[in-house]
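The authors assume throughout that readers already know how a fold can be written as discrete tokens. For illustration, here is how one protein appears when written out as sequence plus structure tokens.
>
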Amino acid sequence: MDTWQQKIGLIVPSWNTVMEYETQRMAGAGASVHSMRIPHTADTEEKLRGLSVQAPEVAKLLAHAKVNVIGYGCTASGFLHTPAEDRALAERIKNETAIPCATSSRAITDALRALGAKRLSLASPYAPWLNERLKHYLTADGFEVVAMQGLSTEAHSTITRERILALVDEVMRPDTEAIFISCSNFRTLEIIDGIEQKYGKPVVTSNASMMWQMLRLMNDPRDVPGAGRLFKL
């Protein structure tokens, strides 16, 4: 795209510094990214659930910018709810703003279904309790987590690509059908293609799947170079 055609709205936890960066890179010159932040300083269950509670009101403010789509970008908070509750949150934001809404957790599972993948290897920066909740959500939605590993850190954005690549190596299994790297504050865009080429498996990340769903909600079928097989569907 050579002209400014799209305005993409994001709702992110206040400490997130990766999602806007990666979304703008995937959006290219034809789109702008506009974000709202919700206070967040620790990955406790109470604080993560609080993000989802605040999201609809924050979305109303974001709607003042007349964005074309809204993405609620905290993956972990979505996975603390049921799939039905997550769908209901997206529907509520859409109804109250008249703007299509994607949530990170639903974008991920929709992406995995589009790729035809049910058996997953899961890599994340999360503590064990949060990985277990993520696994529970995925299992409830019809997926099987064949291996998972987290880094037990809240300094998500500081993790190097080399450490993330090593983490993916740790969770790979012969029967894996897709690699899921969770967290919208985990920098992964630069390594998606390399992982897919190394293992011959599709890679789904929080930010790439969100961008894929937001584009499709705007009826934009384009491929995004470097963002994985998902965008070729």
Observations:
- The first strand starts at residue 6 and ends at 13.
- The longest helix spans residues 45-62.
- The radius of gyration is 16 Å.
